[in-house]
Specification:
The complex is a heterodimer of chains A (258) and B (272). Chain A is mainly α. Chain A is 86% helix and 0% strand. Chain A is built from 9 helices and no strands. Chain A is elongated, with a radius of gyration of 21 Å. Chain B is an alpha/beta fold. Bound molecules: adenosine-5'-triphosphate and magnesium ion (MG).
């Protein structure tokens, strides 16, 4: 009988967390923005969240592009189709790996840091003391971080794909000897702006919203102790990774399914 | 000094029949208190009795189960968010932990409320901030980050921040903890001076009987979910209530329980 009780309790807790998360987001982004004060905060967060994630994104992108080219070549060369290597690398990156891997790396690099930072601000009463100074922490702390995450991740995903394609070129053309002209021209002929690039960007905007939202909510809702914060950080990474992979399936089915 | 009748005609803060509980546990059972305008009122009581909770109730961070909390004529639990923020702009709270913003240095911490709520030019802000820091003896430390301060320094920096905008009401949660005798003396005088020069209303939560006796106009002693003693220090010292005497003399045995509510110790030990 206990497990039924637990199931009920967990379900209620899930839904109430979603409710609290929605309230938080609503309070943060619906508030009338004060551009003069908000913009510098936003820029600072874009630096902390986006710019500081650049290295891991670029390095990973390069390696993933190189691995894709290596793997793709061994398959394609059997059919004499190695000229299509550029197409294969670029489509894999733009449609799937760019948005997905960027979101996963982002959750691990920036998302966990966001959760820990906000959780610690809560534990050390910084959020309460903002409130007591009549400054809304949702606007001052949550909103700039949310917008910075939503803004940064799609750009990071585009950089990831671009660097990946360069990595594919390095391995495919420079190392394995695929013809440079066909590598680029077949890629250009087959990649469509709307079907591939735009859909990839849409995916990564969706992932950006979900991952950033989970990260800031987990911090904001954390139990204000060191144990609570460490749990919240883990939850951020686990929940946002699962959300990204699940949503990717749904979005892919919608975009490329029929 | 005796209780001055005029102090109570228009109190700055007033609690009327406030009841508050955390889950099942009742913290306050139907208490009423007044904090006269322009006076220093101290709240003393055993640790864990709910003194910080009381300040949070006044600040509108917690809502009472029932009762009214009136600040400057406004009933805090009934205010909308916007009205509450308007009241908070005129009050200030020194947190037990200091609660400095860890991403800013001392200067920016103190300047923060000024920058948020006024449009003053930077050079005036600079003067204001340095004056507040001078008052707490930390002018030389304005460039330090909060993690480079000692506990006592952090608390003084936080005090400078909480008086940055010259509030009308200021609540100090344990301002004397972790201060050496010199800075303690400075803080006591500072709180007294702020009070007389700006005529602000101060609520001081503290365990330091001696310091509190030195500066407070009125003193509340809390225990067991209610107010057990109230008056000027003379009245309290003369009080024949054993509860009050126990607290002022710092005795562990007496009517005020020192322990968190628990089953009897023999019962607990037998179970193990
Ligand atoms: N977030 C919370 N959830 C549940 N109970 C709490 C919470 N915060 C405080 N309490 C309980 O409320 C009671 C009053 O706490 P409070 O912090 O107001 O005490 P205090 O009088 O300020 O003590 P101290 O002098 O040690 O600072 C404590 O017994 C504590 O167990
Ligand atoms: Mg306390």
């Amino acid at each position: 009988m206990d497990w039924i009780q637990n199931l009920g309790k967990n379900t209620i807790e899930r839904f109430s967390a979603i409710g609290r998360a929605s309230f938080m987001l609503f309070g943060a982004i619906v508030a009338k923005p004060n551009l003069a004060k908000g913009f510098p905060l936003f820029v600072k967060q874009v630096y902390v969240i986006g710019v500081l994630s650049l290295v891991i994104i670029l390095v990973s992108g390069l390696f993933i592009g190189m691995v894709l080219a290596l793997q793709g070549y061994t398959v394609l060369v059997d059919y004499g189709a190695e000229d299509s290597l550029g197409q294969m690398v670029s489509l894999s990156l733009l449609r799937e790996l760019g948005p997905v891997v960027t979101a996963l790396l982002f959750a691990g690099r920036a998302g966990s840091a966001l959760t820990a930072e906000i959780g610690l601000m809560k534990a050390t009463e910084q959020l309460t003391s903002l409130e007591m100074m009549a400054v809304d922490p949702l606007r001052r702390v949550i909103a700039p971080r949310f917008w910075a995450g939503v803004f940064s991740m799609p750009i990071l995903a585009m950089l990831f794909s671009s660097v990946g394609i360069i990595g594919g070129h390095l391995v495919g053309v420079e190392w394995l000897g695929v013809d440079q002209g066909s590598f680029w021209s077949i890629m250009q002929a087959s990649v469509q702006f709307e079907g591939d690039i735009l859909n990839g960007i849409i995916k990564s905007i969706v992932f950006a919203i979900v991952v950033t939202w989970i990260a800031i909510f987990r911090g904001y809702d954390a139990i204000p102790t060191s144990e609570g914060i460490s749990r919240a950080t883990t939850q951020t990474v686990v929940q946002s990774s699962l959300a990204v992979l699940g949503l990717d399936f749904v979005l892919t089915a919608l975009m490329f399914g029929s | 000094m005796n209780i001055n009748k005029t102090d109570f005609e228009s109190p700055h803060v007033e609690l009327k029949n406030v009841t508050f509980s955390r889950g099942e546990r009742v913290i306050y059972d139907d208490i009423s208190m007044v904090f006269p305008k322009g006076k220093i009122t101290a709240i003393m009581g055993p640790s864990g009795i709910g003194k910080t909770t009381l300040l949070r109730l006044i600040g509108g961070q917690l809502y009472p189960d029932s009762g009214d909390i009136i600040v400057s004529g406004q009933n805090i639990p009934k205010l909308s968010r916007k009205e509450l923020y308007a009241v908070r702009e005129k009050m200030s709270m020194l947190f037990q932990s200091g609660a400095l913003f860890t991403e800013m240095n001392v200067f920016d911490n103190v300047a923060f409320p000024i920058r948020e709520h006024t449009k003053l030019p930077e050079d005036i802000i600079r003067t204001m901030v340095l004056m507040k820091l001078e008052a707490v003896g930390l002018r030389g430390a304005y460039e330090l980050m909060p993690n480079e301060l000692s506990g006592g320094m952090a608390r003084r920096a936080a005090l400078a921040r909480s008086i940055a905008l010259d509030p009308e009401l200021i609540m100090y949660d344990e301002p004397f903890v972790g201060q050496d005798p010199i800075s303690m003396g400075v803080l006591v005088r500072l709180i007294r001076n702020l009070n007389t020069s700006l005529n602000l209303t101060s609520i001081v939560v503290s365990h330091d009987v001696k310091e509190v006796m030195g500066i407070a106009d009125y003193i509340y002693i809390m225990a067991d979910k209610r107010v057990i003693g109230y008056g000027t220090k003379e009245q309290l010292l003369e009080s024949d209530s054993p509860l009050v005497q126990q607290f002022l003399k710092g005795l562990a045995d007496g009517p005020v329980p020192f322990h968190y509510p628990a089953p009897s110790i023999s019962q607990d030990l037998m179970q193990g």
